[in-house]
Design goal:
Strand content: 15-25%
Shape: elongated
Number of helices: 10
Mean pLDDT: 90
Helix content: 40-55%
Distance between the termini: 8 Å
Low-confidence stretches: none
Strand order of the largest sheet: 1-2
Oligomer: single chain
Radius of gyration: 20 Å
Number of strands: 2
């Protein structure tokens, strides 16, 4: 096995604690939903597009986001629901860009389907905006090469995996996930970094995601 490259800077694993908070904001019509989507904090957009992944991380992912569920099941706008489901979160590197895409999709529906404006949610079925609050905590794990990196990946919590793959990229507006960023910039291995950033994490459970990254890294170590 070739000698492993030592990183310029070590990778420090972090983990997260998560809370969901009600904002007190609610929508009963598609128009109201659109107005609030444009105005609420980014933490609300993040919550309603990642809630299922955070709360049910062992289930097969890529469920409908909360906006898609509400317009389909409560307002009966099936076509709009399908268009919201089809938004590829991986294509957007910031919450701001994701928000704009969701808003534009709803605006197109309201323009093309005037009757959509007339639909109201029944009492008790309004869309209640919530926000995702995260507390990021450093762990005691530091790694300097790929072998150490793979070993720690096998024992850290899925909350740590979640933070470095999803939150660091989208909420902290990094160009890629934390693992790929470190591998490319501190180890100088762009090929490996691209392999990890190249697959869609939204199509996997978090445990499957962990195993996939470990597999890619260990294969690279033995190459």
């Amino acid at each position: 096995m070739p000698e492993l490259i030592k990183a310029k800077e070590p990778f420090r694993f972090c983990t997260r604690l998560h809370l969901s908070e009600l904002t007190g904001l609610r929508a009963t019509t598609l128009g109201q939903l659109l107005v609030l989507i444009k105005e609420v904090p980014g933490s609300c957009i993040y919550h309603h597009t990642h809630r299922f992944l955070q709360q049910h991380q062992y289930l097969s992912p890529e469920p409908p986001n909360d906006f898609a569920y509400w317009v389909t099941d409560i307002l009966g706008e099936d076509e709009l629901g399908e268009r919201l489901v089809s938004i590829d979160t991986m294509q957007y590197s910031t919450i701001r860009d994701l928000r704009d895409k969701i808003a534009l999709t709803i605006e197109d529906c309201l323009r093309d389907s005037p009757f959509a404006k007339l639909k109201f949610a029944r009492s008790g079925e309004e869309f209640h905006f919530m926000k995702s609050v995260s507390f990021i905590l450093p762990t005691n794990y530091f790694v300097y090469d790929l072998e150490e990196f793979a070993k720690v990946l096998k024992k850290i919590t899925i909350d740590s995996i979640y933070f470095h793959i999803f939150e660091a990229r989208l909420r902290l507006e990094k160009s890629t996930n934390d693992f790929s960023y470190w591998i490319e910039n501190s180890l100088g291995d762009k090929e490996l970094a691209d392999k990890i950033s190249g697959f869609d994490p939204y199509t996997r459970t978090l445990e499957d995601l962990r195993n996939k990254i470990i597999q890619i890294v260990e294969r690279r170590i033995t190459d």
